Amino acid sequence: MKKIEVRELDLFYGEVQALKKINLDVEANSVLALIGPSGCGKSTFIRTLNRMNDLIEGVKINGTVLLDGQDLYKEVDVIELRKKVGMVFQKPNPFPMTVYDNVAYGPRIHGIKDKKKLNEIVEKSLKAAALWDEVKDRLHKSALSLSGGQQQRLCIARTLAVEPEVILMDEPTSALDPISTMKIEELIEELKNKYTIIIVTHNMQQAGRVSDYTAFFLNGELIESGPTDQVFYNPKDKRTEDYITGRFG
Amino acid sequence: MTVDKNYERKRKLVNSFGKAIVFISALLLIIITVSLFLFVTSKGLSTFIKDGISIKEFLFSTTWNPDREVPAVGSLQFIIGSILVSAFAIMISAPLGVSSAIFMVEIEKKLGQKILQPAIEIFVGIPSVVYGWVGLTVLVPFISKHFGGLGFSLLAGILVLTIMTLPTITSVSTDAIRSLPVEIREASYALGATRWQTIRHVVIPAAKSGILTAIILGLARAFGEALAVQMVIGNRPVIPKSFLEPMSTITSIITMDMANTAMGSVWNDALWSLALLLLIISFTFIIIIKLVGRRGMYK
């Protein structure tokens, strides 16, 4: 089943075209990895899927992005959209509040006030992000006292707490050590049973390990996409092959 | 690589010269601060030591007759006057200032950065005599005409101080809010928060210590302001019973009386005691600002 369908998507920052005629489908309950050199448009692309680019001045978008068949830019309310499409950022960015309040933030702003309900959500989300055992005794300590890897899993828990359907991850492990990275990769493996995940990564091995599908971007264009095995071992385009084999990038 | 001996020697010389200048400047600064504090303290304490007036009378009596045979230097009315005028001014300027800071950083970014902030920074630099004179010319007759009384009043003092502290509070809070990482705002929006929710639940709590610092700085400015206040409050040494009555503050009584008193008289000593009190209060403000700053999570 197709969760997201992108058709003829153009994006401009002022005069500069950052995305050119992107066409891409994302299967539900799969992991799609976006690869490509820096500045190729991967992060810009991922941000069109939850309309984070709306926050940047001078951004113009043409084309359509459908989520469950509905046009994100015409038929969907941006608040509702971001509830459905969660995002984990490159640098762990917990709020300067307690671990508990970080996770409860999303449910609270969406109107859940009941203490018992919130407790349940916080515990469930932290467990799902494989962080519960490490923080259950310091839920009311500042989130900034956690290690970088824990902070990133907290950000994942915070995203899970609003029960999204899609999770966007923008280089979620690039600021982390190898062990924290491994934990997050294991987590992605588990999460894909319930969620559709799109991950931007610079790390070829990571893309190979965690993803079912891979899309290769270059200079704002989508060069090639397909099942990860095919893109990695049997690329159709010469540029994909060059990038994957490390000839540039 | 060949080493130019001359160059090496010159480099070392410049280095030690620089060190010496920095060290002397730092030392000088410490000496000036300490000697100022010692001087004001010794002068201020002579009211109690030399003239035999009790600290209790000074702090809790409102009888101010420093020129009588048996001088009375009860200063409660000045202390209360300073507190009233500053506290009410801050109660108005703090919400206004913080709101304008939020407006400039979170809502109208372009307008804020290009026009409002430079304008506010100019306001910070306007000398207090200008504020006082405008207050005297515009505010005092206005209050007299529309609310009654002479116009020289607690209300006039509050309004002048509100206008004077507003730019300080706005500009310091603006810096505090602007220095927050953009990532935490993005995190909030990405969870489906509205702009108002983001401001209310993320931006303000995260900038709390910076905003508090701004308010305390404003309060310190209000408390220490002498000239502009003195020009509009009427300078009667009493506790005002309404907003429209004239009054005095610690700073205004010092500026009003200092030229009339002889060195070493009880009157003069009492003014020094008030100056000491001001010094202690401003130190307290500084300590509070440091403590608040240390508690903040982002710096």
UniProtKB/TrEMBL annotation, chain A:
Compartments it resides in: Cell inner membrane
EC number: 3.6.3.27
Keyword Hydrolase carried by entry: yes
Major subcellular location class: membrane
InterPro entries named in the record: AAA+_ATPase (IPR003593), ABC_transporter-like_ATP-bd (IPR003439), ABC_transporter-like_CS (IPR017871), P-loop_NTPase (IPR027417), PstB-like (IPR005670)
Alphabetically ordered keywords of this record: ATP-binding, Cell membrane, Hydrolase, Membrane, Nucleotide-binding, Phosphate transport, Translocase, Transport
Any GO molecular function: phosphate transmembrane transporter activity
Keyword presence, Transcription: no
Domain of life: Bacteria
Name of the featured protein: Phosphate ABC transporter, ATP-binding protein
Organism the protein comes from: Thermoanaerobacter thermohydrosulfuricus WC1
